[in-house]
Amino acid sequence: MNQKKQLSFGRLVRYIFSHYKIQLIVTLICIVISAFSSSIATIFIQRLIDECITPGVNQGFKAVAGKFTSILLTMGFIYICGTIASIIYNRIMAIVTQGTLKNLRNDMFDKMQTLPVKYFDTHVHGDIMSTYTNDTDAIRQLIGQSLPTLFQSALTITVMFLTMLYYSIWLTLVVMIVIFLMLKITKKLGGITAAFMIQQQKSLAKEEGFIEEMMQGQKVVKVFCHEEENKEAFKKLNEQLFKDGEKANQNGNVLMPILGNVGNLMYVLLAVIGGLMVYLKAPNISLTGVSIVSIGIIVSFLGMSRQLTQTIGQASMQVSMIAMGLAGATRVFELMDEQPEEDHGYVTLVNVKKDAEGNLIETKENTEMWAWKHPHQDGTVTLTELTGDVRLEDVDFGYVPDKLVLNHVSLFAKPGQKKLHLSAQPELEKTTITNLINRFYDISEGKIRYDGINISKIKKPALRSSLGVVLQDVNLFTGSVMDNIRYGRLDAKDEECIAAAKLANADDFITRLPDGYETILTGNGSSLSQGQRQLISIARAAVADPPAMILDEATSSIDTRTEALVQAGMDNLMKGRTVFVIAHRLSTVKNSDAIIVLDHGKIIERGSHESLIEQKGTYYQLYTGAFELE
Fold first, then answer.
1. Can you tell me the distance from the alpha carbon of 63 to that of 297, in angstroms, rounded to the nearest whole number?
2. Exposure string for 342-356, b = 16+ CB within 10 A, e = fewer
3. So what's the pLDDT on residue 397?
4. What gap in Å lies between CA 564 and CA 52, rounded to an integer?
5. Residues 381 and 446 in one domain
6. In this predicted structure, what is the pLDDT of residue 584?
7. What order do you get walking across the sheet with 578-582 strand by strand?
8. Please, which pLDDT band fits residue 88 given cuts at 50, 70 and 90?
9. Using CA atoms, how far apart are residues 449 and 387, in angstroms rounded to an integer?
10. Predicted local confidence at residue 630, as pLDDT
11. Shared domain check, 271 and 197
12. Beta bridge partners of 391
C-alpha cells in the first residue's frame, strides 16, 4: 500500500468515525463477539471428545450425560450470541455504509459547486461522473464488506492461533509454516490482482467519459457519418477494459483454489503428524506444560486448520476489493481537496434607496435599486450605484501563461450602451472577454472596472448576480418551463416569469406546449427545437433584470425566421442596459453602438458600423463576406 493510499485509508476511517462513532463502536464489539463464537467451537469439540465421548465409551453414557448436556447448552448459547451479534453488526454496517456514501456524495457535490470553471474545462466530465458512481461503489464494498471481513478474519485467526498454542506448540509450528506460505502467495497474486483492478477502474472511467461524449455529440456523429470510426474507438477502449478485467479476474480467481489446496495439504500434514504423536505417545509441549496429545486435540486442530484456511481465503479475496476501494477513496478525496475558486473580494451588492437629499441609503427592502457596498480600511463605507459601466484597461490574459489570448486590450461600455465585440479569429478571443468579466478566469495584467471598482475587489456572487448572461450553448434543467425561466431569479413570481417570456417572444410557443408553462423538460429540453431552447434561455436572463448583459452568440442557434421574432424582444431587453454582444449576424452587428474587432488578441479596429465600413478594413471584409454568404 503506497503512501497516498495509506493516507486515504486513514482519512476514510476518520471520516466514517466523525459521522458514526457510536455505531462503529457497537459494530466492533459485535464483530469481536461473532469472531469469538465462530472460533471457540473447536475448544468444545475437544472437550466433547476428551471429556464425554472417550469416557462414555469406557464408562457408559450415563456417567457423562450431565457434562455432555452442559457443554452442548454452553455451545448453543455462544452460537446464539454470535448469530445475534452478526445480525446486529451487519444491519449497522448497512446503515453506516450507505450513510457514508450519502455524506461523501453530498460533500463532493458541495465542493464541486465551489470549484472554478477551469476545473471543468480541464477534466473529462465522464471521469468526474465516474467518481460519483464507480469510485463510491468501490468504497461501498470496502466499508460494507472488505473491512468488516478483514477485521473479523484477523480476530478469528488470533483467537485460533492462541488456542492452537494452548493445545500444542509443535502442531502450531506446522500451521505457521503453511500460513507463511499462504501469505506469500496472497501477497504475490493479490498484489497483481489489485494492480489490474485499479487499472480496470481507470479504464472504466475512460470508457464512461467516451460514452458520455458520444451521447452529447450524437447528432454531430450522424451528420458527419462518423459511426464506424466511433465504433472502432469504442472497441479499443472496451478491449483495454476487457484485458484489465480479464487479468484481474484470472489472478483473483486462481487465488482461492490455490489457498484451498494449500489448506488441504496442511490438513493432511496435521492429521499425519498428529496421528503419529498419538500413536507414539510423543510428549506434547503447550502453554499449559508438557503432556500427551489426545485424540480430541488432534480433531480440534484439524477443525481449526480447515476454518483457518477458509478464513485466510476469505480475507485474501478482499485484497483486490480493498485496493479498489482505496483507489476510489483516493480519487474521491482528490476531488474534495481540489482548490476552490478563490474570492478575495469584499465589495458586496445591497439594496438601496434615496433619501430626501438624493443620497443612497442601504435598506433591507427590495427596492429594485442596487449599489456596491465598498468598506474601507478607515471604517467608512461607500455606496456606489450599480449602473453597468464596464471597462477593460490594458488587459493581458492567456489560458496558458506563455500564450496570450488578449494582449493590451482596452475597451469600455457606458451604461445603456450596446457594444458588439467581433473577432477576425475563432470565437476564443470573444468568449474570453465573457469569461473575464464574470471572473471565471482572472486576468494576468491590467484591470477590469465595474462602475469604477476593480472587479477583483467585488465578491464573485455579487458580481455575477449583477450580470445577465445568455450563452450560445443552452442548458435547460429537468423541471417545468416555469422553473427553468425562474432559474434566473429564484424569487421571481409566475407573472414575472411570464412577462420575461413575452419579452423574449417565447410565450407564444410555450402556451402551445401540452401543459404550457408547467410542461416538464428532460434531457436538456430535447423535446424542443434549438431555437425554442434559446428563447427560454433569453427569458431566463430577462427575468433576472440585471443592469448589464452579456449575449454570447445568443441568436446563433436560431433560424432567420425565429430571429425576426426574438429581435424585437432582444431590443426591449437591451434598453437602458450595458450590453456586450458577441454575434456574427448582420442585424445584430448593424444595431450596435460600438464595434470592436480583435485579431490575435489585439484590437485592430473600433467604431460604429458606418465608420468601419468606410475604412474598408478587416470589419469591412468580414461584413461583406457575411453579406455575400447571406
1. 22
2. ebebebebbebeeee
3. 87
4. 100
5. no
6. 60
7. 467-470, 548-552, 578-582, 418-423, 594-599, 602-607
8. very high
9. 12
10. 38
11. yes
12. 412, 449
Q: Look up residue 552 and give its amino acid.
A: D
State whether 163 and 89 are in the same domain: yes
- Only one residue has cell 469600455, namely 412
- Report yes or no on 343 lying in a domain: no
Looking only at Cα atoms, what is the longest distance across the chain? 125
User: Any bridge partners for residue 382, and if so which?
Assistant: 374
Start-end of H helices in 168-226: 169-216, 218-223
Residue in 223, 222, 242, 225 with CA at minimum distance from that of residue 234: 242
Q: How many CB atoms lie under 10 A from the CB of residue 407? A: 17
Q: What average pLDDT does range 84-90 have in this prediction?
A: 91
> Same structural domain for residues 408 and 280?
no
Question: How confident is the model at residue 84, as a pLDDT?
Answer: 93
Range of lowest pLDDT (496-500, 506-510, 617-621):
617-621
Q: Please name the residue that has the C-alpha cell 490574459.
A: 397
Which cell goes with 444?
A: 494576468
Tens digit of each residue's pLDDT (9 = 90 or more) over 217-228: 666 666 557 778
In this structure, are 305 and 165 located in the same domain? yes
**Spatial distance between the Cα atoms of 394 and 415, rounded to a whole number of angstroms:** 20
For residue 107, the enclosing domain spans 3-336
Q: Could you give the CA distance from residue 619 to residue 164 in angstroms, rounded to a whole number?
A: 91
Q: How many domains, the chain? A: 3
Count Cβ atoms within 10 A of the Cβ of residue 629 and give its class: 0-12 exposed, 13-18 middle, 19 or more buried. Answer: exposed
435 touches 602 (CB < 8 A): no
Q: Could you tell me if 300 and 401 lie in one domain? A: no
The number of CA neighbours under 13 Å toward the Cβ of 506 is: 31
* Pair type for strands 453-454 and 360-362: unpaired
- DSSP assignment letter at 294: P
